[in-house]
Design a protein that fits this description.
Elements: E1 4-9, H1 14-27, E2 32-37, E3 43-48, H2 53-61, H3 63-66, E4 70-75, E5 81-84, H4 89-107
Antiparallel strand pairs: 1-3, 1-4, 2-3, 4-5
Amino acid sequence: MKTVWYLCAVNDDPATNEYLVHVIGQQNTECQCSNVLCADDKRRNLFRCPNGYSNVRSAVSAIGEFNLKIEVFKEEIERVIMHYNLWKPSARKAARRKIVSRRLLTHA
């Protein structure tokens, strides 16, 4: 079984939920997973990413533009949905570089 990726709006942030509904929901309306039990025994409303990690990358690159507040989860062989620490220092630097480079391109 391959890894299944999920996105979740932090504290059910309305702007992030709207982004996820429009971007992920349009790809597949069955991607909205309500009240899903995760490995930390918390229930969350998740959006399953139909295009895998490429949906996660798209959401990360849209954080600055749409003021998104997202959490990333993944499900692997164990079939347990676990929080994925997207915000490791290297991931934060990569996201910042994308935002800065996009701003430089649009202002040039």
